[in-house]
């Protein structure tokens, strides 16, 4: 066994700890309303695991997508209340709130134009996502409209968008406009792909990451996240100052 093998072995032995993160602001823990937790039992088990990792607060963000997940503030609020009741019954003392992960499409723009209520967290932050392959036609215009309405948009997992990987100028344009970036911790493990891992590392090294999240959907996500301490990014993540702690 060589010196590098010994180093890698010691890295892998380190248990995952997320105390440095404090608050997870991207997850799918309300059961039965999107592609996340399927039951209250699963939700509670996932929340216990996240709490055991050192997180003091969870802001769960169900998908709002016109074609697939037609969630509303009422649906999400009711789901959160049921989950909070069960957590109280089981004496699980972790703070949990709910916002949403909005898919940017024409219907979302219509909601914005009509001043329909949108779920936010912290200092009026709103978590948004796009399709992974093609850039939305009105991407920058939608960000501008959100800011005009007083929202502070956070682009969920930009490292996963192929159009940003292929068009550096588009990425730089978003950076220049001050759009907040949220990176999935799983991206640093190679869970999604090597190019996504490389993109996440690049954004982290350039200090462009303002928020990090687990994007937890199920136990498979958390099982894979256990590999994070073995990555070269783990120490950088622990030493970075993210805005999660302000939520």
UniProtKB/TrEMBL annotation:
Q: Does the keyword Hydrolase apply?
A: yes
Q: Which domain of life is it from?
A: Bacteria
Q: Which GO terms describe its molecular function?
A: manganese ion binding; protein tyrosine phosphatase activity
Identify which top EC class this enzyme belongs to.
hydrolase
- Keywords for this entry? Hydrolase
Is Protein biosynthesis tagged as a keyword?
A: no
What is the designated name of this protein?
A: protein-tyrosine-phosphatase
The record lists the organism as Echinicola soli
